[in-house]
Amino acid sequence: MGLTRCGKIVKYIMFALNFLMFLGGIGLLAYGSYIKNNNGLPILGILTIILDYVHLSFPWLLIMAAIICILVSFLGCCGAVKKFRGMLTMHFLLLLAMFIGVIVSGVLGYQYKQTIESAIVSQMEASLNSSYGVDDYVTRTWDTLQSTLRCCGVEGDENSTNSWSFYKTSTDWFKSQRGDPRYVPNSCCRYPGDLYNLTNCVGLRDRDRRQAPAGGPPVLHVPSMRNDQLFTKGCWTTLLNIVNNKIWIGMVMITLSTSLMLIGMILSVCLCKRIEEQIYEDEEERFQNLAM
């Protein structure tokens, strides 16, 4: 005697969901391997300046996550097709561990949010201070980040000592210049291709040092001190604003992933129950046949 109609529906749904998860794991594995073999990718550069050494482990984290997804989906697919309760039990336990991991990570991330942000800002400051203008890879990454996000420096607005003015107050790049110094790099400028606007942006035209970036901070509410060619907001502040504005996307993804985990666990339990009932019914039918 096979599964009932309800049991077959559960089996097919479970197989379909785990097959999609298997394909997703393959894609994640391919992406992780691609990043691992291409060290010059922008995402690794951004990780380098945000959290030191994380860029080295990031591809391996993707590969490990992909392997876990493939393993879980394999157990789910084979357990559903072969009706093997041992595989379904392992599938349930792995999904439960993943579900708990997501919840715990979310709680810890929220609890230590300020600590994490402080660590990121400190690493960005260290990267800009000692590596900009020295390490070509870090320099290109900062230039790409600043020109793309239209930001300059680490954090804060035009009156902060950690945004555009961080270059002239704290970086080896500024201190190592000879002659008329540039107070910010070209990537902090709105129109780096226009020579007149560029020289105004980096402070080469401001002999009296009254206008940003030569003058200030703070940049007072005086038109002569403002520089409309210069990006004045720090990159971490800009990036954080983007994340906060798009946080609903992350919440939707987390809700969807945890919901799929719950559905997978429920399907595993239901299918195990149906298989157990089938085994009991088969044994009962066999006993009745022997009795006859």
What does this structure look like?
The chain is an all-alpha fold and 292 residues long. Helices cover 69% and strands 0% of the residues. It contains eleven helices and no strands. It has helices at 5-36, 42-50, 54-82, 85-111, 113-130, 136-149, 166-170, 172-175, 195-201, 235-245, 247-291. Helix 1 runs antiparallel to helix 3, helix 1 crosses helix 11 and helix 2 (42-50) crosses helix 6. The mean pLDDT is 84.
The topology string of helices and strands comes to: HHHHHHHHHHH
Distance between the termini: 18 Å
Number of strands: 0
**Poorly predicted regions:** none
What is the residue-mean pLDDT, rounded to a whole number? 84
Helix percent band: 55-70%
- Tally of contiguous helical segments: 11
- Radius of gyration computed on alpha carbons: 29 Å
Q: Strand share of the residues? A: under 5%
Which of globular, elongated, flat, extended, rod-shaped describes the shape?
Answer: elongated
Q: Let me know the largest β-sheet.
A: none
Strand-pairing-aware structural class: mainly alpha
